[in-house]
């Protein structure tokens, strides 16, 4: 009896999936222009994001499931009118390998928090727009960002080529959103519901130079009846100066269309160039390099959550994040569709 029991125990242990855990933290600084309804004494404000993170990975030969929990502490207008916003973020991703060069993906992420509507009132910087504080116009400030997507990763059997794509459904906004546009002078943040398409490819031309290609599109329906659609296409080039320092440049083009709520108004079209540059470099602390700094400058189309208009917008995000030691050249050879965990409800 002892031998069958021992064999059964060995079989159960050998067939159980392995589990890994990791704890980390990141700090991001965001420099931006004030919102239309945000009280600010300058034309440029700075936000600070502090986010500890706990990751867990369960994996077998063919299946890998990732879990992540990340509480986020967002301090708006750090230097002038600091307000604290606490978010809770949960992320789950499953990868199933069909064959050596084809993997199926499934992703779900949810961020929940309370937007500080009572801190928003009349005017913002130099672009003053008289408004009634949003807290007086809406009953609840709780909001959610949730995304569910499915996709794939493949190399098509070509060495140094990676292609990844996802198609998902996103709900972003207040849990108790307005269903009709408020009269001018009142702040309203409509809820957004939309399908989202992401496609990225990554090809290593040399050991230091890589070609990238990205396609991003969404068709947003607002709770107030408005609708916006945008499609972005951007080829890019990435160069690694050293295994720890790289620079990427992605010029592109974006086309969009805004559908007004009133049937007697005609849709408006938008065509604009886009540009995104990113610099990754480690920051030394003593004899170690535990901090990886990322500086990103972007000029992309932006759907204003207040007016639901589709407008160009630029931004700069210097964001040092406390992570493990920076990895070398091989860490960037796979194209991966990234999913933001930061709450993207009223922005």
List keywords for this structure.
347 residues, mainly beta, Porin, 14-stranded antiparallel β-sheet, 14 strands, 5% helix, 59% strand, disordered C terminus
Task: Write up what this structure looks like.
The chain has helices spanning 2-15, 134-137, and strands spanning 18-32, 45-59, 63-76, 83-99, 102-114, 142-154, 161-174, 192-204, 209-222, 227-242, 245-259, 268-285, 288-303, 310-322. It has 347 residues and is mostly beta strands. Strands 1-2-3-4-5-6-7-8-9-10-11-12-13-14 form a 14-stranded antiparallel β-sheet, with no helix packed on it. A hairpin with a 6-residue loop joins strand 3 (63-76) and strand 4. The longest helix has 14 residues, at 2-15.
Provide a compact summary of the structure.
The protein has 347 residues and is mainly β. It has helices spanning 2-15, 134-137; strands spanning 18-32, 45-59, 63-76, 83-99, 102-114, 142-154, 161-174, 192-204, 209-222, 227-242, 245-259, 268-285, 288-303, 310-322.
Topology:
Layout: H1 2-15, E1 18-32, E2 45-59, E3 63-76, E4 83-99, E5 102-114, H2 134-137, E6 142-154, E7 161-174, E8 192-204, E9 209-222, E10 227-242, E11 245-259, E12 268-285, E13 288-303, E14 310-322
Antiparallel strand pairs: 1-2, 2-3, 3-4, 4-5, 5-6, 6-7, 7-8, 8-9, 9-10, 10-11, 11-12, 12-13, 13-14
């Amino acid at each position: 009896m002892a031998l069958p029991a021992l064999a059964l125990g060995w079989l159960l242990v050998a067939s159980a999936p392995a589990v890994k855990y990791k704890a980390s933290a990141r700090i991001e600084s965001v420099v931006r222009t004030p919102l239309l309804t945000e009280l600010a004494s300058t034309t440029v404000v700075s936000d600070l994001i502090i986010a500890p993170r706990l990751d867990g990975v369960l994996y077998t030969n063919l299946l890998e499931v990732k879990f992540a929990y990340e509480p986020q502490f967002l301090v708006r207008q750090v230097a002038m009118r600091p307000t604290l916003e606490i978010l809770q973020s949960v992320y789950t991703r499953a990868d199933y390998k069909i064959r050596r060069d084809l993997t199926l993906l499934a992703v779900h992420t949810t961020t929940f928090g309370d937007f500080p509507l009572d801190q928003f009132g009349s005017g913002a910087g130099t672009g003053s727009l008289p408004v009634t504080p949003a807290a007086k116009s809406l009953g609840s400030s709780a909001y959610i960002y949730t995304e569910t997507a499915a996709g794939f990763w493949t190399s098509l059997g070509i060495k140094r080529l990676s292609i990844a794509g996802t198609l998902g459904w996103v709900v972003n906004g207040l849990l108790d959103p307005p269903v009709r546009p408020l009269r001018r002078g009142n702040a309203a943040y409509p809820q957004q519901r939309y399908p989202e398409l992401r496609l990225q490819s990554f090809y290593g031309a040399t050991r230091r130079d890589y070609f990238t290609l990205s396609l991003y599109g969404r068709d947003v329906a607002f709770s107030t009846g408005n609708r916006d659609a945008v499609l972005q296409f951007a080829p890019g080039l990435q160069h690694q100066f050293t295994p720890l320092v790289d620079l990427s440049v992605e010029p592109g083009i974006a086309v969009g269309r805004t559908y007004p709520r009133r049937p007697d108004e005609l849709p408006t079209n938008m065509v604009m160039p886009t540009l995104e540059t990113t610099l990754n470099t480690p920051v030394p602390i003593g004899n170690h390099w535990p901090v990886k700094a990322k500086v990103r400058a972007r000029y992309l189309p932006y759907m204003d959550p207040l007016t639901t208009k589709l407008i160009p917008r630029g931004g700069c995000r210097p964001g040092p994040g406390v992570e493990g030691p920076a990895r070398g050249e091989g860490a960037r050879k796979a194209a991966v569709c990234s999913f933001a965990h930061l709450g993207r409800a009223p922005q």
